[in-house]
């Protein structure tokens, strides 16, 4: 079987410590830092574990969240010149997956650590409904169709694989086996949320092509206008562009971010092709397991300092355990059953762990805009439960340190809400929080827990 990154993980290598064969970390560094982490929370975990022995850099600038962020052209080179890369092997961070693949292939001296390793049974499956039926009997002029946002569906299981948003993918196409095929479709809607019919007898069809315009090897692409099939011909990777036609004229294509298709000798059904909620780190119990995974990765790569990494991880996990205990008390003393979080759905793991209910107007994407129906449902929840304090994600405001998201302003205008409290999923940081020295735990203890207490009446 081809030794892909995920097959290495699945075969028992707890973390993909691809640099462990080269021995101690010393002498390998060519970059200005010992390692990189894909976003703020992972960076803080790595910094706490590395202590005085390893220094990490977070490439995502202050004021930005990790989701939807894209690196510049030099980041792969910079990481390849460092000693370690900590990331989540999930399509929400496709850029990090791509870098991990490149490191595995071209830079085996860099230690690659997937903090999600071993957490599969604890991950929350992305909720998907049955594939919606097209709304026939309507006209769909191109100016009324929302081409910039559509879901991509695995037609074998009707599972949502991800979605296209404006100029980039969240999620993507699962691996294709040699000799196998993966049929995918999209759910395209108009401005009134009706599902646009896609088939050879309708005015709209979906096709795909290889991004380079060259041979489609290692895949053959076939389409009947309603769906696209990727047939595995030989192992390898290629990029493809989805195309939407109206009356035989190309009206939209995903050229800004071609989707990567990988053909493997044997497909790993437990890998990132399964679309899960990626926000596992917000659960302080799961975060402790992530910390252990990172610590084990450091120890495998640098056994001389293994004891230091283990001690640092234990000390940090004691602090995470304290956060867990505080949230347990909050759950036990809450007066409310429901709170409103005017942000993307990033706290499902906290809801599950502590039996809390956070109504969010949109799904897990931080880029999704609230529809009229989303706003109406949220107003109804506020009114039904007599909610006066709502929560919001600072990173969904124009200025995370000073502004409120538009959704909060709407609730102030349309309901009896009188207060709004910040709730951060810790995928990013701000200049102000950096000045205060806030890491993941400080965001939880100084901001998130007090905000949740206010929203659930547990003060």
Describe how the helices and strands are arranged.
Elements: H1 5-10, E1 35-37, H2 40-50, E2 56-57, H3 75-80, E3 84-87, H4 94-106, E4 111-114, E5 149-154, E6 159-165, E7 168-171, E8 176-177, E9 181-187, E10 204-210, E11 219-223, E12 228-232, E13 236-246, E14 249-253, E15 259-264, H5 284-301, H6 306-333, E16 338-342, H7 348-354, E17 357-359, H8 372-384, E18 389-392, H9 406-414, E19 419-422, H10 431-436, H11 440-456
Parallel strand pairs: 1-2, 1-3, 3-4, 8-15, 16-17, 16-18, 18-19
Antiparallel strand pairs: 5-6, 5-9, 6-7, 9-12, 10-13, 11-12, 13-14, 13-15
Helix pairs in contact: 2-5, 2-6, 5-6, 6-11, 8-9
Rg, Å, rounded = 23 Å
Strand order of the largest sheet: 7-6-5-9-12-11
Could you name the CATH topology of the largest domain?
Rossmann fold
Q: From the 3D coordinates, which CATH architecture of the largest domain would you assign? A: 3-Layer(aba) Sandwich
The description of the largest β-sheet is: 6 strands, antiparallel
The global form is globular
If you average the pLDDT, what whole number results? 85
Strand content: 15-25%
């Amino acid at each position: 079987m081809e030794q892909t990154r995920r097959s290495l993980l699945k075969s028992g290598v707890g973390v993909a410590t691809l640099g462990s064969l080269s021995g101690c970390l010393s002498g390998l560094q060519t970059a200005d830092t010992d390692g990189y982490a894909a976003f703020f929370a992972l960076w803080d975990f790595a910094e706490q574990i590395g202590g005085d022995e390893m220094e990490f850099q977070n490439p995502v600038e202050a004021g930005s969240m990790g989701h939807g962020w894209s690196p510049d052209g030099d980041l792969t080179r910079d990481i390849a010149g460092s000693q370690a890369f900590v990331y989540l092997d999930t399509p929400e961070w496709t850029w990090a997956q791509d870098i991990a693949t490149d490191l595995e292939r071209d830079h085996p001296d860099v230690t690659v650590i997937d903090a999600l390793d071993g957490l599969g049974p604890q991950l929350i499956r992305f909720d998907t409904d049955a594939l919606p039926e097209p709304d026939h009997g309507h006209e769909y002029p191109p100016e009324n169709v929302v081409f910039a946002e559509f879901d991509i569906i695995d037609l074998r299981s009707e599972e949502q694989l991800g979605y296209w948003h404006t100029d980039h993918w969240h999620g993507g196409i699962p691996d294709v086996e040699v000799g196998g095929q993966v049929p995918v479709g999209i759910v395209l809607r108009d401005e009134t949320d009706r599902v646009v019919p896609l088939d050879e007898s309708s005015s709209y069809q979906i096709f795909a092509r290889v991004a380079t315009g060259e041979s489609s090897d290692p895949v053959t692409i076939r389409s009947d206008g309603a769906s696209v099939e990727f047939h595995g011909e030989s192992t390898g990777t290629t990029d493809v562009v989805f195309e939407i036609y109206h009356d035989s004229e190309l009206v939209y294509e995903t050229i800004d971010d071609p989707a990567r298709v990988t053909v493997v000798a044997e497909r790993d059904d437990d890998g990132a092709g399964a679309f899960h909620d990626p926000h596992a780190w917000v659960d302080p119990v799961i975060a402790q397991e992530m910390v252990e995974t990172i610590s084990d990765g450091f120890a495998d790569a640098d056994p001389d300092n293994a004891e230091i990494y283990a001690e640092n991880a234990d000390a940090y996990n004691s602090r995470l355990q304290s956060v867990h205990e505080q949230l347990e008390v909050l759950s036990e003393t809450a007066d409310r059953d429901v709170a409103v979080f005017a942000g993307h759905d990033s706290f499902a793991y906290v809801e599950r762990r502590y039996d809390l209910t956070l109504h969010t107007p949109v799904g897990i994407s931080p880029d999704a805009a609230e529809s009229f129906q989303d706003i109406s449902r949220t107003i109804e929840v506020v009114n039904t439960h007599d909610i006066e304090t709502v929560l919001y994600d600072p990173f969904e405001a124009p200025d995370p340190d000073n502004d409120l998201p538009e959704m909060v302003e709407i609730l102030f205008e349309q309901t009896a809400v009188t207060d709004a409290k910040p709730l951060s999923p810790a995928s990013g940081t701000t200049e102000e929080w950096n000045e205060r020295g806030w890491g993941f735990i400080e965001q939880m203890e100084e901001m998130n827990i007090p905000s949740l207490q206010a929203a659930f009446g547990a003060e």
